[in-house]
Every structure is written in C-alpha cells, then in structure tokens.
Amino acid sequence: MAAAAGPYKEMLEVVNACAARIRWRLRPASKRHLLNDIMFLCTGLRPVVLVDYGGTMPQLQENLCGLLYIARQFKLCKVRSVQFGQKGIPYLNTYDDRTIRYPDPLIKANDTIKIDL
C-alpha cells in the first residue's frame, strides 16, 4: 500500500501543472530558455511563478518577498455569525472556522475583518 500524498507532493503537482501551462503558451524560441529562467516560490498562500525577462529576476524576487512578508502579518476573514455564549460572553465565527471572543460590538454578520497573525 502506497503512502498518502502529503502537502509537499500536492504542491509539486500544482507547480508542474502551472509550468506546463506556461510552456504551452510561450513561443517556441522562449520555451528553450524557460527551464533555466523559471523559479517557483512556495509561499504558503499560493504558488508564485517568476519568469526571468532580461535579468530582472532578482529585483522581482526582492519586491515579491517584501510584499509576501507584509501579507503574512494579517488575514482578511468574513464573519459568519455573531452570537452570545455561556454566561453572556459575545463571540463571532468566521468562514475559515475561527472563533473570536469579545469582538467589537459594531461587527455584524457578513462583515470582513482583519486578523493580525
């Protein structure tokens, strides 16, 4: 019996599928250079594909890493419901299964909130 596919193996399948789609859309002259000039960043958010166009890869990589660092500091979540629990403690549920106790009283269902990670 084979081992179950983990997140790393699933990520590699997604990366290979993205590379195949990119190669399919390029001109034949560009396909030869693609093997050396493509880089995949696995960020935890989604796979990011960088294709080098004339030596600008390091600049793009620095800009992208800076943006991803900022994006990892918070998350936007949509509020599913705001309720009262035991002993009248207010809490809210989000669509990504987070529970937050003592939310701001102005927050209602279907609002989008920013959560610091």
UniProtKB/TrEMBL annotation:
Pfam families recorded: DUF4504
Gene Ontology terms describing biological process: translation
GO molecular function annotations of the record: kinase activity; rRNA binding; structural constituent of ribosome
Source organism superkingdom: Eukaryota
GO annotations of cellular component type: ribonucleoprotein complex; ribosome
UniProt keyword terms in alphabetical order: Kinase, Receptor, Ribonucleoprotein, Ribosomal protein, RNA-binding, rRNA-binding, Transferase
Family per record: Belongs to the eukaryotic ribosomal protein eS4 family.
Name this protein carries in UniProt: Leucine-rich repeat receptor kinase-like protein
Phylogenetic lineage: Eukaryota, Viridiplantae, Streptophyta, Embryophyta, Tracheophyta
